[in-house]
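Hi D.,

Good news: the full-assembly prediction came through. Inputs first.
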Amino acid sequence: MKKIEHDCILIKKTFLNQDNILLTFQSQIISDTAQPGQFVAIKGPAFLRRPFGIAQVDRSSGTFSLGIRKKAAGTAAFFNTKISDNYSVLGPLGHGFELDGLETLFIIGGGTGIYPLLFLLETAREKGITTYIATGFRSSTDVLLAEEMNRLADGFCLATEDGSTGIKGFAQNALEKLWLDFCNNYRRDFDNSKSDDDKDLVEHSFEKSKTALFCCGPHPMMQKAAMWAKQIGLQCQVSLEERMACGIGICRTCAVAVKREPDAEVIKTDAGAIKNEIDTVVVRQEPEFDYDRCCVEGPVFPAEVVEW
Amino acid sequence: MVDLSVKVADLTLKNPIIAASGTFGFGQEMAEFFDISALGAISTKGFTRLPRKGNPAPRVAECDCGMLNAVGLQNPGLEVVLQKELPFMRSANATIIANIAGDTAEDYIYITERLAQENIAAIELNFSCPNVKEGCITFGSDPQIIESLTAECVKRSPHPIWVKLTPNVTSISDMAKAAEQGGATAVSLINTLLGMIIDIETRRPILHNNTGGYSGPAVKPVALRMISEVYNSVSIPIVGLGGISSAEDVAAFMIAGASAIQIGTGLLVEPSLPWKILAELPELCRKLKVDRISELTGTLELWT
Ligand SMILES: Cc1cc2nc3c(=O)[nH]c(=O)nc-3n(C[C@H](O)[C@H](O)[C@H](O)COP(=O)(O)OP(=O)(O)OC[C@H]3O[C@@H](n4cnc5c(N)ncnc54)[C@H](O)[C@@H]3O)c2cc1C
Ligand SMILES: Cc1cc2nc3c(=O)[nH]c(=O)nc-3n(C[C@H](O)[C@H](O)[C@H](O)COP(=O)(O)O)c2cc1C
Ligand code: FES
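Then the structure:
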C-alpha cells in the first residue's frame, strides 16, 4: 500500500518578497516520486489543508519546495513557520504535465502559477526538451524568479503591465514575442533562401506534434493562451485551481467542468435497465459537460477538454 | 482483550467505525493507501437511479471548525454502482452500507429492489441531502413521508434499512419515530446542517449553490444533543455521526446513545483518522473501564 500522509520537517525558508515565500521540506518519498504539475496538500492552523503546486524537488537531499503567496489567513500562517517545525503533507497529488514525446515547449506563467514552472523547467531540461517561458507581472517590484527562469529556460521573456522592466504588456504578449522569434529563427535555420510568408512556412514544416504550450496562472490568462494555441494549432495543457477539501479524490468538491464524449457503455446499460419503467423516471436537467476532479484528473488538463 | 465489535440490530460489525457517506467515495481511492476491510463498514457515496453530475464549483467553503459542501450528489448512477463499485468494494472485503437517494419515492423503491440480490450489509436511505432541489431533504422533514417510504423500502428488501436523518428539522425525534414506525432497522444521524458563507467583497455566497451542508467538529455538539434526544425517543439502534475526530469523540457518541459511529469530514482532512482512532480505542476502553466497547452505548446520565 502506498503512503499518502507524510510528516515533513521544514528545513528552509526563503522570503522572495513580503508576500511570497519559498518553503523547503524534507521528504525523500515526495521528492523521489513527484512529477511537475503535481501538488501537495499541507495542514496549517486552518481547518482544511491548503493545496500548493510542487515548485522544486532535490532528489539528492530528499527535499521539495513550495512557493506560497499570501492570500488570506490560511496562507499567511505559513509565513510565521519555524525551521524544524513538522507538517502533515499529503502528496504528491494529482495528475501533472505530460512531457512524453515533446521536443519544444512554450510555457506561460503568472501569479502563483510561476512556482510549479521551476520544477517543470528543470524536468524539461533533464529530458532535453527546449523551453521558452513567458511570465507577466504588474510592475518591476512584483517580478519573481526571473533569474531562475532565465537560467533554466532556453528562451525567457518577461512582461510588466507598466513596462518598468521587460516588455510592456501581459504574459500573453511575452509569449507571442517568444513564438515570433522562434518562428523567425526557425525560418532562418530552415532555409535562408526561401522568402515565403513566415507563418505559412512554419505551419507546414516544423513538427507541431512535438511542440506544446503549457499554462499555469490566473484563469483568464490561461483561457486566452489556450485560445491562441488553438488558433496556431499547438497542443496545450493548462493547470487549473479549484477549492478542495480532501485533495485525494474522495469528496468530489473540486469540480472542474470538462467537455466529454458521452460514455457510451454507461448510457447503454442505463437505457437497458430503465426501458420498462421509463415513464416513472424523472429525467433531470443535467449540464452537457461533466465534472472531473481537479485533485485527481487534474490539476493539469488538456486545454481542449476544459469548459472555460 | 477489549472487544470492539458492536451490533446494529442483528448486524454485527467488527468495530463501531464506519466511513460516512460522501467522504469515502466507493472506497477505491482510499484502498490504495489503507486497509479498507479493517473498518466496521463503509457507507457509499449517495447514489441515484441515473447518474448525476452535481453542482457547479465552488462546492466547498471552509468555515470555523468545519466546512460547507454543496457537491449535489454527483455519482455514477445505479448501474455503474452495481457493475463496478460494489464488486470492487466486495473484492476489497469491505462491509458495505449502500447510501441511496432519489427525486421521487419511486426512485428509492426502485433502487432498493435492485439491491435486493446484492451482498451488502444494509441500505441507508438518505432522506437528508440538503444540496439537491428535489427529493431528499423534503422527504426527510415530513414524518408521514418518512414513515411510508421507509415502510415501502422495508417491505421490498431483505437487507436492514437504516434511515439517515437531517438535523434541519424542528424535532428530529419525530423523524426518528416515523422511521421506527415505518420499520427501519436503525437511524443514522446527523447529516449536514444547512448553512451559508458570504464573501463580503463580492457580496456573494462562496458556494455556487448559495447554501451548503455544514459538517466537521463545529456540528458535534448539535449531533450529540440530537443523538441523546433520539435515544430517549425510539428503541431502534442509532448510528451516530457529525464532527467525530478522535477516539474520545467516538466514546462520547456511544455514551449519548450510538451503537456505531461514522466519520466524515474528519477523514477528509486526515485520511488516516479512522485507522488511527481504531488503534486508540482499546486503550480508551480500558481507561473507561469497559471490556466491550458496546457497553458504552446509551450510558449517558442526564442531570435531572
Ligand atoms: C492545485 C493547486 C495548486 C496551487 N498552487 C499554489 C502555489 O504553488 N502557490 C500559491 O501561493 N498558491 C497556490 N494555490 C492557491 C492556494 O491554494 C490558495 O491561495 C490558498 O488555498 C488560499 O488560502 P487562504 O487561507 O490564504 O485564502 P482563503 O481565501 O481564506 O481560503 C479559503 C478557502 O478557499 C480555498 N482557496 C482560496 N483560494 C484558492 C485558490 N486559488 N485555489 C484553490 N483553493 C483556494 C482555500 O484553500 C480555503 O479552503 C494552488 C491551488 C491549487 C488548487
Ligand atoms: C463532501 C460531503 C459529501 C457528502 N455526501 C453525502 C451523501 O452523498 N449522502 C449522505 O447521506 N451524506 C453525505 N454527506 C454527509 C456526511 O455523511 C455526514 O452526515 C456529515 O458530513 C456529518 O458528519 P461529519 O461531520 O463527520 O462529516 C456528505 C458530507 C460531505 C462533507
Ligand atoms: S478535493 Fe476531494 S475529490 Fe478533489
